[in-house]
Design a protein that fits this description.
about 60% helix; mainly alpha; about 210 residues
Length: about 210
């Protein structure tokens, strides 16, 4: 779509939509800016850190967190951290979006935030272990399993010497890899995957 054209003028035209009164307009602007490759799209998203029309609308807040994760910019870390533990997650999806987004930002602070989240007594964090485990595995290349205590024990032993890889660590579990890739696929990648699946089905011999 036109909103995906990597051009500052396109980004500038999309930006006002983030403060529109209509939630569907805000969502459309978020989706376009999330996948727009012009650097100014990241700048615009970062500047929305106090935009109540996004943050107070659970559906828009979720989309905003995924958009920040898509950009992989460490300037997003304070936004993802704000209210991470005490957030009013009224649709049950804002916290998972924040946790997954942290897995995209290759900075040790992202790991620290994930582990601080696990160490929190405010929420029943065990129900978010899928998100934390996947994000930490991508960041560190390590998998300590589904138990909170195992991750915290590992973190206490390794946090001072931890060095992140420059690229995302490969995920040995095929289901986890599919899950992670599906979270960050662009519209074009989704369409290409659908076409590939259809072509594969068409090539199967008839029974």
């Amino acid at each position: 779509t036109n909103g995906l054209i990597a051009d500052p003028l396109v980004v500038g035209a999309l930006a006002p939509g983030l403060k529109h009164a209509d939630t569907f307009v805000r969502q459309a602007a978020l989706a376009a800016l999330r996948f727009n490759l012009d650097p100014s799209a990241t700048d615009v998203l970062i500047k929305q850190k106090n935009n109540k029309k996004l943050l107070d609308d659970p559906a828009c807040a979720e989309s905003y967190m995924y958009a920040l994760g898509q950009k992989r910019d460490k300037r997003a870390l304070p936004i993802l951290k704000d209210g991470l533990v005490a957030t009013g997650d009224t649709n049950g999806k804002v916290i998972p979006a924040k946790l997954f987004a942290l897995g995209r930002i290759r900075d040790k602070e992202a790991c620290e935030m994930l582990m601080d989240f696990l160490n929190s007594a405010v929420l029943k964090v065990e129900k978010y272990m899928v998100e934390v485990r996947l994000a930490m595995a991508v960041l560190t290349g390590m998998d300590q399993g589904p138990e909170r205590k195992d991750w915290l024990h590992w973190w206490n032993d390794n946090k001072t010497k931890l060095k992140l890889l420059d690229e995302e660590a490969p995920l040995p579990d095929a289901a986890a890899l599919r899950k992670w890739k599906s979270l960050w696929m662009s519209p074009e990648e989704i369409e290409a995957a659908k076409k590939a699946r259809k072509d594969a089905e068409d090539e199967k011999p008839a029974r």
